[in-house]
Amino acid sequence: MSKIDPSIALDVHANEAACPFTEPRARAAHKGHFGHIMVVGGHVGMAGAARMAGEAALRVGAGRVTLAVHPESRLLAGAGCPELMVHGIAHPDVLDAAFDPMSLLLVGPGLGQDDWSEAMWRQALHSGKPMVLDADGLNWLARHQKQHLPAGFVGTPHPGEAARLLSCQVADIEHNRPAALHALIQTFGGVWVLKGERTLIGDGSQHLMNTTGNPGMATAGMGDVLTGVIGGLWAQGLSPWDAARCGVFGHGRAADAVAAELGERGMLATDLLPWLRRWVNGKTT
């Protein structure tokens, strides 16, 4: 039976999030002030997902980003972005010590669904670190729903992932998206971003509908970039709630700027990166 009660009506308001940073950085600022993020993912053939999440986090201002990827993905994951630190992880149990200096984790971009993937996912959750769960990070959660989640986490499912998490059909999610958001919050706690047309953001007390974005975003990698944006904002001191709502808004705002300049068709996830940098610095997009 579906966990979604279509009679639930949530108070959903438009998300008009301004740039989250209004003051210049202190002159004495250094990279340690702006967080150290680890992206856990990047299985064979999916190095780009981890790479995009990591670069997006840097472009919105994170101080440092490390990618923990499959050994066969190590060279590809860092190619073209030398600012990313990349580690090929053959045995996930070595991650225990690596997690210690991290501000938060981004778990799932390109993670995959085999034994290596599950071991990486379990090690990440056992760390107790704050995290953003996306993609296969959510698919593993759907398989192991009794797994303990950290006190601070943000989940970013698309409708298919939400359906797996709630043991229902995608049509159930789309029939009443506010109710689906409510069910995710009630089942798992945390902050949830239900992606799609008019993305919804909610936690136990607040629920918003995003107003930015366009159909050009219907392309591979957009979710990975969003994960990086949310993580990058969170690492700089925003709350999980503010990082999620501002990240969704800024992500859609950047895509709208790309569409206004070049059109919707042919938009790539990485096209958003220069515009995200403008937005996070308070520039008009």
Automatic annotation (TrEMBL):
Positions that bind AMP: 195-199, 223
InterPro entries: Carbohydrate_kinase_pred_CS, CARKD, Ribokinase-like
Amino-acid positions noted as binding (6S)-NADPHX in the UniProt annotation, renumbered to this chain: 49, 110, 158, 224
Class of this enzyme: lyase
Organism domain of life: Bacteria
EC number: 4.2.1.136
Start and end residues of each YjeF C-terminal domain: 14-283
Entry cofactors: Mg(2+)
Pfam family, one: Carb_kinase
SUPFAM superfamilies linked: Ribokinase-like
HAMAP family: NADHX_dehydratase (MF_01965)
Subunit structure: Homotetramer.
PANTHER family: ATP-DEPENDENT (S)-NAD(P)H-HYDRATE DEHYDRATASE, ATP-DEPENDENT (S)-NAD(P)H-HYDRATE DEHYDRATASE FAMILY MEMBER
Entry's family note: Belongs to the NnrD/CARKD family.
Record's function text: Catalyzes the dehydration of the S-form of NAD(P)HX at the expense of ADP, which is converted to AMP. Together with NAD(P)HX epimerase, which catalyzes the epimerization of the S- and R-forms, the enzyme allows the repair of both epimers of NAD(P)HX, a damaged form of NAD(P)H that is a result of enzymatic or heat-dependent hydration.
Protein name: ADP-dependent (S)-NAD(P)H-hydrate dehydratase
Lineage: Bacteria, Pseudomonadati, Pseudomonadota, Gammaproteobacteria, Oceanospirillales
Encoding gene per record: nnrD
